[in-house]
């Protein structure tokens, strides 16, 4: 039978001055997705009324002068922090997750809470300061390093990636600007379900397999591209960031994990965050990751998959460290103004049918933009890998920030309903 973890609500709150609650707008709630190890999971978001830039099909961008992309009125709509809504959100999926952890921070209040068990054998509670695997949240770190290299004039975002990596992409491909790797407009194809194991049995058996970046890209480019002209459309995926990570390594002579460590983790003193290359363990306190494997009798059993090859999205962190990273990034302390603007420069164009952004782009360089039913717009990133799903989001002014992690039993991929519930509880209860 499938394990159902005991409730372990351990929430604490120290709420500051309250803001008047506003009515919830009748918009569709945002649902978020991510990719890990090349398996794409669609993301749904409500785009802002006027994205920041316009893109023509030659790949050139023009600023949308009808709106001010730096103007942020979110705080006027931000409701009071609601600990009860957060506790209910964390405990809303006992049949699909074994443990949940969330942290809300900002001038209007702070809250941390957990649910479930860190270890289903011992019943140990989820540690508030527990570490977890980031999956595609690693993309935000890679994007930050790439933008730092651009600020150092070591890479030109408008130059084709083929200029720097001439032997990585097929000769038949058109010039693909480096910028399009970061904002998901490159048109590079993704890995299919036939390229890597996706069944529970396959995930368990192959979770220690190593897949170098070059191998992942070589497999992906054998497939059909989602669109042929770079910069004409946005489609979320992983291949662009595999290439971006390879470009970081080519430009610096170091692994992208080393560059993340020396450029971000060490200067910010993120002591509980690591970017492992081969270590299959999670150091320090953490919740175990599990996957439900079918049994011959029709039931299922949970198999511990905590230890696994880090892979392309193998970073490990805590909610506190991600909150510090997000705060430092948004305050402009990691990037100069020109490169900082790339984080919020969502292209003014459409998305593919299978990548449901309601027909509009919603990603900039390493960050996604989501507008919630009450009109509050948040920026951040989701991530998932086997046994771990997480995300980090904040209002543009950092007035309220959310970092969460949970342990799904379904393998890779987000539990979209739970992600939506947690996000809404934090910003639109």
Write the layout of secondary structure elements.
Layout lengths: L11 E3 L38 E3 L5 E3 L19 H8 L6 E9 L4 E7 L15 E2 L4 H14 L9 H4 L13 H5 L17 H7 L6 H8 L18 H14 L3 H10 L24 E5 L5 E5 L11 E2 L1 H12 L6 H6 L4 E2 L19 E4 L5 E9 L2 E8 L5 E8 L7 H12 L2
Parallel strand pairs: 2-10
Antiparallel strand pairs: 1-5, 2-3, 4-5, 4-14, 6-9, 7-8, 11-12, 12-13, 13-14
Helix pairs in contact: 1-11, 2-7, 6-7
Q: Would you give an account of this structure?
A:
- This protein is globular.
- Strand 13 (388-395) and strand 14 (401-408) form a beta hairpin.
- The chain contains 11 helices and 14 strands.
- It is of the alpha+beta class.
- Mean pLDDT is 84; it is low at 1-70.
- 23% of the residues lie in helices and 16% in strands.
- The two termini are 34 Å apart.
- The chain has a 7-stranded antiparallel beta sheet, sandwiched between helices. Strands 3-2-10 form a 3-stranded mixed beta sheet, with no helix packed on it. A two-stranded antiparallel sheet has the order 6-9.
Summarize the structure.
The protein has 429 residues and is an alpha+beta fold. Helices cover 23% and strands 16% of the residues. It has helices at residues 83-90, 138-151, 161-164, 178-182, 200-206, 213-220, 239-252, 256-265, 319-330, 337-342, 416-427, and strands spanning 12-14, 53-55, 61-63, 97-105, 110-116, 132-133, 290-294, 300-304, 316-317, 347-348, 368-371, 377-385, 388-395, 401-408.
Low-pLDDT stretches are: 1-70
Approximately how much helix is present in the residues? 10-25%
Q: Roughly what fraction of the amino acids lie in strands?
A: 15-25%
Rounded to the nearest angstrom, the radius of gyration is: 20 Å
Q: Which structural class best describes the helix and strand composition? A: alpha+beta
Compute the average pLDDT. 84
Give the biggest beta sheet: 7 strands, antiparallel
Total count of helical runs of at least 4 residues: 11
Strands, total number: 14
Shape: globular
- Main sheet: strand order: 1-5-4-14-13-12-11
Give the terminus-to-terminus CA distance.
34 Å
Give the ordered list of helices and strands.
EEEHEEEHHHHHHHEEEHHEEEEEH
């Amino acid at each position: 039978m499938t394990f159902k973890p005991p409730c372990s609500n351990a929430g604490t709150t120290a709420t500051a001055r309250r803001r008047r609650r506003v009515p919830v707008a009748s918009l569709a709630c945002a649902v978020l997705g991510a990719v890990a190890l090349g398996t794409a999971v669609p993301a749904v978001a409500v785009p802002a009324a006027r994205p920041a830039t316009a893109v023509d099909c030659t790949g050139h961008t023009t600023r949308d002068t009808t709106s001010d992309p730096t103007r942020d009125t979110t705080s006027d709509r931000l409701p009071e922090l609601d600990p009860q809504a957060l506790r209910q959100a964390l405990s809303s999926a006992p049949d699909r997750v074994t443990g949940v952890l969330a942290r809300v921070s900002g001038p209007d209040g702070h809250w941390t809470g957990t649910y479930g068990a860190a270890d289903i054998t011992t019943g140990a509670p989820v540690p508030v300061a527990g570490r977890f695997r980031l999956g595609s949240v690693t993309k935000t770190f890679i994007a930050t390093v790439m933008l730092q290299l651009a600020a150092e004039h070591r890479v030109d975002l408008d130059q084709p990636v083929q200029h720097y990596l001439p032997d990585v992409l097929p000769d038949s491909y058109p010039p693909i600007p480096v910028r399009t790797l970061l904002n998901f407009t490159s048109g590079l194809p993704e890995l299919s379900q036939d390229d890597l194991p996706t069944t529970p049995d396959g995930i368990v058996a192959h979770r220690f397999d190593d897949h170098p970046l070059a191998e992942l890209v070589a497999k992906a480019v054998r497939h059909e591209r989602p669109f042929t002209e770079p910069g004409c459309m946005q489609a979320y995926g992983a291949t662009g960031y595999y290439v971006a990570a390879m470009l970081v390594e080519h430009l610096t002579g170091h692994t992208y994990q080393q560059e993340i460590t020396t450029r971000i983790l060490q200067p910010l003193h993120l002591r509980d965050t690591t970017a492992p290359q081969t270590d299959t363990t999670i150091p320090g306190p953490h919740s175990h990751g599990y996957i439900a494997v079918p049994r011959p009798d029709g039931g299922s059993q949970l198999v511990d998959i905590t230890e696994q090859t880090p892979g392309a999205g193998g970073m490990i962190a805590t909610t506190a460290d991600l909150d510090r990273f997000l705060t430092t990034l948004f305050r402009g302390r990691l990037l100069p103004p020109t490169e900082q603007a790339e984080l919020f420069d969502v292209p003014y164009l459409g998305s593919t049918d299978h990548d449901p952004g309601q027909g509009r782009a919603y990603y900039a360089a390493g960050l996604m933009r989501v507008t919630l039913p009450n009109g509050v717009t948040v920026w951040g990133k989701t991530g998932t890998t086997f046994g771990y799903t997480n995300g980090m989001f904040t209002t543009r002014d950092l007035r309220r920030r959310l970092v969460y992690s949970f342990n799904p039993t379904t393998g890779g991929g987000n539990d979209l309903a739970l992600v939506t519930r947690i996000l809404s509880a934090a910003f639109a209860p």
